[in-house]
Amino acid sequence: MKILKFGGTSVGSVENVRRIGEIVLNQQDQIVVVVSALGGVTDNLLTVAQKAALGARIDGEMMAIRKRHEEMIDGLFNEHDGIETLNAIHPLFDELEKIIQGVFLIGELTPKTLDKILGFGERLSSILISRYLNVQLIDSTLVIRTDRNFGKANVDFELTYKLISEACSTIKQFAVAPGFISSASDGSMTTLGRGGSDYTAALFAAAVHAGQLEIWTDVDGFMTADPRVISKAYTIPMLTYSEAMELSHFGAKVIYPPTILPVYQKNIPIHIKNTMNPLGDGTLICQSQTNGKDHPIKGISSISGITLFTIQGLGMVGVTGISMRLFGALAKHEINVILISQASSENSISFAIDSHFTDIAGEAISYEFEREIASGRISKLLCEKELSIVAIVGENMKHSAGIAGKLFHTIGKNGINVVAIAQGASEQNISWVVKNSDLRKTLNVVHEAFFLSPYVELNIFLVGVGTVGRDLIEQISRQQEKLKKEHRLKLKITGVANSRKMIFDREGIDVTTLKDRIDQSDEKSDMSQFCQTMVHMNMFNSVFVDCTANAKIAEHYLFVLENFISVVAANKVAASSDYSRYRALKEMAAKHGVKFLFETNVGAGLPLISTINDLMRSGDRIVRIEAVLSGTLNFIFNTLSKDIPFSQAVRMAKERGYAEPDPRIDLSGIDVIRKLVILARESGYKIEKEEVVNTQFIPSGYFESTIEEFWSTISGMDEEFEKQRIILEAGKQKWRFVGVMNEGKASVSLQVVDPGHPFYDLEGSNNIVLLTSERYNEYPMLIKGYGAGAAVTAAGVFADLIKVSNI
Ligand code: ADP
Ligand code: ASP
Ligand code: MG
User: Which of 675, 732, 734, 745 does the annotation list as catalytic?
Assistant: First the structure.
């Protein structure tokens, strides 16, 4: 015999009931079909009952429930059978209306009456399904016997098993039974608790020693996490009973926790299947051990709406019976404790309960420990609300070291505060408490960290959509599919700001509509607001990308890093600002386990900083850096000719987008100083911009005037440069603007290089860097290539993004 249970969605539409017909009637075995109420009907009944008790009108709701059933009958039956079925359910509606009327008049809803009302959902659906399948109906209230603990009654197993097996001994091949409902010995109707239809099916399975219990629901099986929260969750092919038990205990609603025990005791496998996808493999829950090759973590589950109590006091240490009294007091009020955590010093115990019971629990404990509290032996009773419990479960955890370390490192790195932790002694679950507002982020982070997700997601908040920003967006859109497929990385743009507007979208902004969306946005750009919103969105793996050259934006980095969000900056203001600020940013990033990357600050996309970092990390020491770091200046000096005077070369550099908006930042040497300072700092030297010796090659007056004056007078330099140029040309020499750093001392100046010098052949706007280290000493390391331009800079930013994702 097999027991098949169909949940609310499965019985809730004409189409799905037809599917049930195909699934059930093609079977060879003897089958009992256990059904839930039509999806949502139990909740509707609960609303009706509660409203009636408050004296509110419920005609509309009652009509809706009736109509829902009548429409199902309309869709499932021919005219004759339809009328008969309607006749069969009408008396139930009359009875329900009378009870509700009673609640309305008395203005009181007892747990006993509530059970009676909620039970109508299954009573109605079972009539419908048994008539549709044209098979016999077993009245579960006659065979499942419980105590009078209304709302969640306790089963008398012996009697129930006897009654079920008697009832099943006479069925032909198929029968239908309502889930969820049962009765006490005095005949009152009881229920097995919300979600209890699964349990009904398990009781039937255990009673008849069924070959299998099948739970047919609306998802493809037991998944690695709740698919409504984690879109990347996938079906777990196999679970042991205890894994399934732990996951459901901690909130995986797909199976009601008490369901496992009856079938586990009889070693009956549970198969979870999707009514909408009957050919899918589903999940098999059985005794067999995992084979050691599985992920150590099988799944994650969570419960929100939790209150955590902590009792604390030195007077508790070494005193026997405290826990017994504590949990005894809670048990007296039937308060279920979901998680317990005790400090090994015994001076505090924390426990988590459903927040509905917060007040009762608080009173019960205060009453139980009245004397200890008065005498100060218990000093504190703390109560924290609006929390959630999250649990990871897997039998293989006990064979893998370092799971807890990795878990809490990952959680901490994302700025999630852990309120309490508990680990089962069997080492097959670790559970912990976080704020409700951190739950979604926690689930995502953990799902990803333990490779339960098929890919890693990076949530990008981009500021600046000028040339570099736009190029970056384009590169992201081009690479997206490939990265996802080959590198398990999904890049998602979740926020964008330009100088006028900003937009946010938790689900990701489609790059093809990004420009329109930002143009149409009503939200004015405001960097403080942008950062606040980004932090408030509380998304995991977030990264702030600054593609501007704006000092105001760089001011926000510390706040961003402080909130556990990585920063990727093409903007060089921060890394080249005061040394103390640079250090503060680096230290904040290290402290919070996030990244602060700025590879494109020097040499655009050239891997300069990362090379220096790698050399340093591998124990090398950078002794000397010699470099041509200004693409603009190199372009200018490579362009000067008989026909192109100095002032025109400067103009050309600006027109081609090499130069900074004010070319004097290049001409004065400031830009190179900034870059040299960054390289020196990354090489481990404490240096300020002011300490770099700057030998300028045009008179300082040019830098003190306005930009307009500069443009109108710069041609005054042409003659002097032309004179020098002729001399250089005769000697086959070239100008290079060179930065040198030697053991922490730095200088920049215009130098003349001879043929054969490594800097001699340096075309266009290219950059070159010679790194002398202890290891690369006699022959320094040479890095050369495009040192400016939007595309290469965007590619460098892109490379930093990939580094943030850690793949
Ligand atoms: P039914 O009405 O069939 O009994 P439920 O709503 O009780 O269905 O349970 C199925 C739901 O459980 C799914 O739709 C899903 O949203 C939720 N759920 C929570 N955690 C999990 C999980 N780990 N795997 C699958 N489903 C889960
Ligand atoms: N119909 C009941 C409920 O909604 C039982 C179930 O669906 O399992 O809780
Ligand atoms: Mg259910």
Answer: 675
